[in-house]
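Blinded run. Sample ID left blank on purpose so nobody reads anything into the name before looking at the predicted structure. Input follows.
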Amino acid sequence: MANALQHEPRGTHQTKKAAASGWIGSALEYYDFFIYATAASLIFPQLFFPSGNPTVAIVASLATYGVGYVARPIGAFFLGHWGDTHGRKTVLLVCMFLMGFSTMAVGVLPTYQQVGMLAPVLLVILRLIQGFAVAGEISGASSMILEHAPFGRRGYFASFTLQGVQAGQIFAAAIFLPLAAYMPRDAFNSWGWRIPFLASLIVIIAGYIIRREVEETPAFTEEGAHGAIPRAPIVQAFKQSWPDMLRVVCMSLMNVIPVVATIFGAAFAVQKAYGIGFSPSLYLWIPVLGNILAVLVIPYVGNLADRIGRRPPIIFGAIASGLLSFGYLYAISIKNVPLAILLSLLMWGVVYQGYNAIFPSYYPELFHTRVRVTAMAIAQNTGTTITALLPAFFAAVAPPGSSNIPLTIGALALGITIIAAIAAMTARETYRVQLNDLGLPGAVPVSKEDYDRLRAQTMGGAALARP
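Blinded prediction complete.
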């Protein structure tokens, strides 16, 4: 039994504290990121862009949402390097402060009517800073939790990173609900929309208090003790792990599903030019309910991935959620609110979690400790950057007045999710590989019999022996 763990790092594993820090930190940081996404669909077209052409305003506003993702690969290079050379904890604090202050600044921006084209320019600059900052969040938090987690439970504990992200989306939408529903429309358009952005001051304070309490991971500490911290993790990542980085890029295209559900779906349902006519306050309940269900589902899927592996749930989640996107958009097009909510719950709240709950463990498991944050950050953010440009593309290929919008956008979404599924099929399984062997060529997984015993011992609360 002990020999089965000879390639696990020694030291104190703060499993629960790391998971709590990852959950709360991700929730707070992605609250910042997603209040922008919500505002870009519901209010920014009218505030920051010329109002003469509604289609142009919608496309331009959704393009500023995508601009935030353009900065993510750049942030991934810098923040991934920082995480692999200075530690996981440090990079997470840097991400949080950059995100919090840039989000607060959006809340004090002048509108297009006040300063003309300077308004969208400033909006784009702040969105770029947001994108730069968020680039290191998921890779840093996932790596920290993974490296603190006990063998056999990495999928379960790492899934709390994405549970926090989903909770952040709930907070983002939920804070808009009472404002959009109960404030007079003129007051909401004038100053009410600024409240969620200015509330980011609370995010900064709370996030700092939480994250300063978590120690650096045993795996990173061992690397430092052995003098194995790389001086150029970016170079090592591309030289040693480029095939797996390419796979992560393709799997990260799964971000098309939340794009369909919350960004393009919101514009399609709410913007007057499309003629559907959902009220903003009504539509906001769709992502809220979907995310509430996702928060409940994610730990179970993470636990499932520790039992059967990472690849099967990802492959199923990719193909099934792509198929469901047709029905979801069709429900919006026929103005059937109950059906839209039901399909949102199924597509995004349940099926998509086959991917979403598992990538926080699977992606970092594909790479070695020395380059883990860098390789994951660059690859994942490259993939999500591609998909984040899709809202503007979708609005351009299926503009207001066009026919067969559900079929057009659904076909594009399915094609993208099939690419992600193929990438997962070609990747190796990692759930039974010990932490110090992850990312190494020829790494031998623990036998299924030993793995099941060790996992049962961990779940029973017993301390696993380490050499």
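Unblinding after everyone has recorded impressions. The first helix runs from residue 15 to 42.
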